[in-house]
């Protein structure tokens, strides 16, 4: 609690900490043909709500990881679970991203130790899985090698530790020797589940390895994977999207593995410039957002994309798999980088403030595999057994990359949160200057943000602010001049900026009442700003059953109820809404879905009319 209060005070008071230089990174040597239109700024001292939840991810999840558990399947093959091999790579991804913005020596030590113990588990032929020799390349073996390479490359990118890169190369070399469409090679599409979607997702790190090494065999293998997708026993990603534009027609519609393949295809597009891949994947994005996306920014029913508009949301529906939430966020981040279109930032915001953070318990750091909108959240604290318990921290570690940066060389604010962003821009006179932007806000408690702009030299340039589509009356004021924003667009302020200039942002966050659609036709949900709200039964002791609660009409009576939260409920955001309980009008407390259920109480997002 004390650490959270320190975080909050730093954010709200705008306290200045010593400026820390970014971690030195070791990047690819082969450039992409398609250059990113969005490049994240370097963020530090992230406070407020997102800072609070990132700190929980570090303190209560990542720093609690037991390397012995994650390495057990490598040290004594076979592992206890056929998918146990994926967890080390996922941890190294999260730890590397977290270290890049925190510079925390503890997470650095933990991942250093993990890598040292991990690389000695690699067999002489390059094998870095958890299966016996006779069982190699079945079930989740290729999949685990995918995450091994991803994790090792991310670790190398923030440390420059070459043995990690060499270990990744040896693992990939074995894959390249084993699979292919040449004589004597095995069919990759048959080396895992879901009509080849699972093993085929190794496309992503293969493209990365080519960029990091320049070795053409990794590029050739990437081309083989794309061919294999379309063969008789493949998932027909390209053919299915070309013919139907419908993700349910791709493979067996398995959401996590399909989105993982999409990430690799986008990286291949950036590398080669082959526009058909971008066009097809943008059509997949449209299909998902129109037909398969929950209001909390996740997808999947029993882990697949279901029929259009069917969005069942109870624990019995195995909805909102954490891994799907994470790869959906990654998919949007990649599309934002490629296109600079802020509609992808809108979807990242929806997912982060709702389903992503709902999947990690702020009391314990435990994670839920599926996070339903109705019922108790089934949080678990184990390690090395559930894919989502390793996945959810990955997306939380990516939050600094989503907050803002340059879009077409214009510094652009995407998420409204406390923090200090640093980057380099080109001013209107074509000179390169450094830019630091400090934000102080209580968002999402209210819609006021103050920015302090510090260019390295007084220059004329533009700063853009994303105007959320849920906001009303969005204004920005600079030195007595006020600018008005339009929902869903960027508000640009172009002027001569000097060190210490202030920008005051203000916007309203009206309550939205959302109809329940096909799956909940007689129910509504309540949303304020980017946050979907829920009734937590543990906070409403007067209610015998959540089924007794009825929403009848929103009358504007939204009352701050934060003082009524338990003392150990760290994020103090709650409201009373007028509803009926057993047909008797009374005030019902609601909290953000991301915070609801943290004490194991039953919750409800969809409320009976």
Automatic annotation (TrEMBL):
It comes from the Bacteria. InterPro entries: 6-hairpin_glycosidase_sf (IPR008928), Beta-AFase-like (IPR049174), Beta-AFase-like_GH127_cat (IPR012878), Beta-AFase-like_GH127_middle (IPR049046). GO terms for molecular function: beta-L-arabinofuranosidase activity. Coiled coil: none annotated. Its EC number is 3.2.1.185. Keywords: Glycosidase, Hydrolase. The keyword Hydrolase applies. GO terms for biological process: carbohydrate metabolic process. PANTHER family: DUF1680 DOMAIN PROTEIN (AFU_ORTHOLOGUE AFUA_1G08910). This is Non-reducing end beta-L-arabinofuranosidase. It comes from Mucilaginibacter gotjawali. The lineage of its organism: Bacteria, Pseudomonadati, Bacteroidota, Sphingobacteriia, Sphingobacteriales.
């Amino acid at each position: 609690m004390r650490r959270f209060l320190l975080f909050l005070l730093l954010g709200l008071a705008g306290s200045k900490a010593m400026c820390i230089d970014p971690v030195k990174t070791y990047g690819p040597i082969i450039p992409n043909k398609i250059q990113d239109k969005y490049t994240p700024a370097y963020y530090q001292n992230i406070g407020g709500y997102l800072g609070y939840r990132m700190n929980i991810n570090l303190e209560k999840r990542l720093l609690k990881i037991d390397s012995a558990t994650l390495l057990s399947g490598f040290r004594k093959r076979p592992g206890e679970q056929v998918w146990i091999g994926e967890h080390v790579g996922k941890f190294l991804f999260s730890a590397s991203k977290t270290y890049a913005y925190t510079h925390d020596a503890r997470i650095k030590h933990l991942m250093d130790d993990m890598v040292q113990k991990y690389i000695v588990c690699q067999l002489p032929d390059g094998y870095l899985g958890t299966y016996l020799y006779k069982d190699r390349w079945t079930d989740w073996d290729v999949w685990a090698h995918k995450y091994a390479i991803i994790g090792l490359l991310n670790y190398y990118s923030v440390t420059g530790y070459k043995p990690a890169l060499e270990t990744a190369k040896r693992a990939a070399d074995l894959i390249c020797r084993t699979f292919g469409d040449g004589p004597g090679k095995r069919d990759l599409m048959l080396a895992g589940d879901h009509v080849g979607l699972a093993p085929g997702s190794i496309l992503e790190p293969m493209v990365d390895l080519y960029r990091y090494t320049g070795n053409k065999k990794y590029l050739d293998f990437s081309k083989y994977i794309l061919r294999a997708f379309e063969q008789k026993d493949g998932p027909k990603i390209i053919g299915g999207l070309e013919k139907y534009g419908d993700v349910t027609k791709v493979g067996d519609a398995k959401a996590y593995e399909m989105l993982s393949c999409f990430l690799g295809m986008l990286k291949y597009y950036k590398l080669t410039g082959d526009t058909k891949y971008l066009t097809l994947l943008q059509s997949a994005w449209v299909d998902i957002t129109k037909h398969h996306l929950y209001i909390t920014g996740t997808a999947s029913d029993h882990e697949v994309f279901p029929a259009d508009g069917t969005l069942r949301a109870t624990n019995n529906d195995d909805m909102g798999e954490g891994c799907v939430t994470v790869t959906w966020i990654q998919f949007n981040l990649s599309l934002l980088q490629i296109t600079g279109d802020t509609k992808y930032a809108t979807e990242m915001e929806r997912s982060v403030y709702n389903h992503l953070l709902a999947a990690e318990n702020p009391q314990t750091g435990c994670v839920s595999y599926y996070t339903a909108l109705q019922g108790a959240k089934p949080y678990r604290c184990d390690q090395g057994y559930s894919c989502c318990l390793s996945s959810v921290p990955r997306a939380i570690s990516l939050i600094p990359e989503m907050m803002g940066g340059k879009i077409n060389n214009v510094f652009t604010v995407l998420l409204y949160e406390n923090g200090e962003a640093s980057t380099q821009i080109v001013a209107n006179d074509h000179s390169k200057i450094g830019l630091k932007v400090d934000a102080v806000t209580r968002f999402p408690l209210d819609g006021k943000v103050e920015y302090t702009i510090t260019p390295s030299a007084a220059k004329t340039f533009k700063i853009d602010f994303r105007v959320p589509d849920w906001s009303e009356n969005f204004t920005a004021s600079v030195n007595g001049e006020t600018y008005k924003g339009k929902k869903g667009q960027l508000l640009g302020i172009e002027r001569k900026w000097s060190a210490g200039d202030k920008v005051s942002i203000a916007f309203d966050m009206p309550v939205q009442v959302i109809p329940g659609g096909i799956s909940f036709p007689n129910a509504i949900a309540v949303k304020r700003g980017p946050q979907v709200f829920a009734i937590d039964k543990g906070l409403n002791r007067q209610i015998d059953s959540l089924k007794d609660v009825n929403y009848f009409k929103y009358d504007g009576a939204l009352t701050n109820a934060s003082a009524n939260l338990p003392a150990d409920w760290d994020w103090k955001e709650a409201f009373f809404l007028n509803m009926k309980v057993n047909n008797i009008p009374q005030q019902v407390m609601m909290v953000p879905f991301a915070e609801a259920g943290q004490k194991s109480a039953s919750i409800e997002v969809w409320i009976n009319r």
